[in-house]
Amino acid sequence: MNKIELIELTAENIQANGCYCLRSKQKSTGYQAKKAWLIDQFGQGLKYIQLMENDKLAGFIEYTPIEHSSRVVYGENYYVIHCLWVNITGKGYATQLIEKVIQDAKNHKKDGVIVVTNPTTSWTPSKEVFLKKDFTELEDAPYGFELLVYKINEAANPYFPNDWEERLTLHNNQLTILRTAQCPYIDIAIDNVIEAASKLQIKAEIHHLQTREELLKLSPTPYGVYGVIFMNKLVAYHRLTVHSAMKRMKEFI
What we know:
The chain folds into two domains: 4-151, Aminopeptidase, CATH 3.40.630; 163-251, 3-Layer(aba) Sandwich (Glutaredoxin). The strands form two sheets. It has a seven-stranded mixed β-sheet with strand order 1-2-3-4-5-7-6, covered by helices on one side. Strands 9-8-10-11 form a four-stranded mixed β-sheet, with helices on one face. The chain is an alpha+beta fold and 253 residues long. It is 28% helix and 27% strand. Helix 3 links the parallel strand 4 and strand 5 (112-117).
């Protein structure tokens, strides 16, 4: 019989347990930045739960109070799920992790749990597993993003902003990379864009979003963690290859 265990990462055990993404390159700047970011965010209520199968990492979920979330969604007294990943499907592990968040939300008197999904990229979860757990889809946003909520109490619904097009016009046609430290793959994504821009003789400006207020104001998508804008158009909100980034930017020249 498989032994299943849920382990909560803390500042004390993160060195021994590690985090899931980019774990094969733990000396990389992206992994180290993610680890430092997690340690800081633990103090803000963020939870990072690992699911272990027979002492081997089989999945994880990351969630945090909405006031500290890196997703561009408005609301009060909700948890927001950032990431959900399992590397063994068909065993109900994703459901088990979601149930953990819901129970934690109830224990902390939250009004519900929010998740931003997108069927077109692996950088966000897909909505099907959440719908099976009685999440409700509230609205959508450009580029395939969807807002889902699990309501615990009668409370105001969370919502997306409605100024996505205006956000693309804030950078004077420059190639602008907006980033945070929440995802360890962002450094790789940025390196690819910088290399592509160099080949096209385009100067890139990197803007590190330091606060939730800044993220809510500037992010071009609900994803919030990463965005690339050029000529008032969205180039990417997830990692592209150098070739794909060049092709995308050429469309706007």
